[in-house]
Amino acid sequence: MPEFASDSVGLVTPQTAHFDAPLALACGRTLSNYALVYETYGTLNAERSNAVLICHALSGHHHAAGYHSAEERKPGWWDAHIGPGKSIDTDRFFVVSLNNLGGCHGSTGPTSVNPESGRLWGPDFPMVTVEDWVHSQARLADQLGIERFAAVVGGSLGGMQVLQWTLAYPERIANAVVIAATPKLSAQNIAFNEVARQAIRSDPEFFEGWYAEHDTVPKRGLKLARMVGHITYLSEDAMGSKFGRDLRSDDLNFGFDVEFQVESYLRYQGDTFSTSFDANTYLLMTKVLDYFDPAASHGGDLARALAPASCPFLVVSFSTDWRFTPSRSRELVNALIRAGKRVSYANIDSPHGHDAFLLPEPRYRAVFAGFMDRVARDLDLEGH
Q1: Torsion angle defined by CA atoms of residues 305, 307, 309 and 310, in that order, rounded to the nearest 10 degrees
Q2: Is the same domain home to 268 and 235?
Q3: One GO term of the cellular component aspect (predicted)?
Q4: What are the pLDDT digits (tens) for 41-88?
Q5: Is 300 exposed, middle or buried (0-12, 13-18, 19+ CB in 10 A)?
């Protein structure tokens, strides 16, 4: 057996849940059947009261912690916070992390076969929403025998799912952790998403979304989309301290090849992403972000929209996050207070921008772990 750190969940194996009951979507279409890929960490207790659901962000997936093999160099995307003794302590909690509908990491999405046509779904895959995701997640919980989550936790787009859980299934969520998120996108954020989508859709190899049938991938569009997105995930301070105006060589070459280290970094990120993520999925995920606005059906009154929520909230923002600024988290916190809900809020001083929610910042860990420790004490969950 390979050796892993004592605070690692170690080797994990993805599982697949199949659903034959039709799922009616907000867009008016219905999925006759679908599959969700997920991972679990820790042990579900006899009372089935210690389950925690992890909701992923735009380019996330089910692999949140541990390793798929002894050779895997990087652990799951939230390994910094999931494991024995970590913020989400797998000695006490049973953690469920899934790849959402429309994803490209095993769950039913554009890269899956449409059972009605026999061809890949591609651009024909229906538009989905945060609300649709939460309904599918509730069905996964049913299949796992989990009536109520001890907590539902997520950052960025994952935080929006947490918020929707408190509205759609208030009786099935005991605590909500909303990190680096927003109750709705600003016009600027929608604009960034549209630039990313246009980069993909204008790629000559996009073929209106049927690129797989042309045995190609719109890599240039995906690369540009990721580069634009990555700029928004980092703060000016983080980019400055990491790259400054450093050149790759000692002299300027007075051309359009890569000269600055930050250019090299962005191109690398774009190239890597363009070979590992599906373009149609990226288009879908950005639209999910754009559409989320629970207050819209309540005349724009967020406090009124939050009326169904009944659990305590932890809301966390980061000082240099300009994608989802601290003011957007405070907007949520103030609405929760107006609605008479229980809420704890922390704005973490961090130089890392939006990406800070993925990192083990000491104060962030203290706040996060403190809240989850209270969750465990309330449920009388003991470590092994």
Answers
A1: 170
A2: yes
A3: cytoplasm
A4: 999 999 999 999 999 999 899 999 999 998 888 999 999 999 999 999
A5: exposed
271 is catalytic: no
Which residue out of 87, 136, 156, 350 is catalytically annotated? 156
Q: What Cα–Cα distance (Å) separates residue 335 from each residue in 111, 217, 299, 350?
A: 39, 43, 14, 25
Mean pLDDT of the chain: 91
Q: How far apart are CA 131 and CA 236, in angstroms?
A: 33
**Does 66 reside within a domain?**
yes
Catalytically annotated residue among 63, 105, 135, 354: 354
106 within 8 A of 51, measured Cβ to Cβ: no
The pTM for the full model equals: 0.93
Residue 67 and residue 162 in one domain:
yes
In angstroms, the CA 4 to CA 141 distance is 29
Same domain for 136 and 57? Answer: yes
Q: Binding-site residues for substrate, please?
A: 226, 355
User: 286, 315, 332 — which closes off a domain?
Assistant: 286
The answer on pLDDT for 1 being more than 60 is: no
Structure tokens at 272: 């890597």
Whole-angstrom distance between the N-terminal and C-terminal Cα of the chain?
22
CB 10 within 8 A of CB 66: yes
β partners of residue 31: 23
- Residue of 81, 132, 321, 352 with catalytic role: 321
Task: With cut-offs at 50, 70 and 90, classify the pLDDT of residue 384.
Answer: very low
* Residue 62 φ/ψ, nearest 5 degrees: -75, -20
136 is catalytic: no
- 238, amino acid identity: A
Binding-site residues from annotation: 226, 355
User: Which whole-number Å values give the CA distances from 34 to 4, 285, 366, in the listed order?
Assistant: 34, 17, 39
| Residues spanned by the domain of 225 | 190-286
Is 127 in the same domain as 226? no
206 and 134 inside one domain: no
Residue type, 56: H
Residue 321 known to be catalytic? yes
CA dihedral 160, 162, 168, 173 (to 10 degrees): -170
Region of 247 please: left (phi>0), alpha (psi -120 to 50) or beta: beta
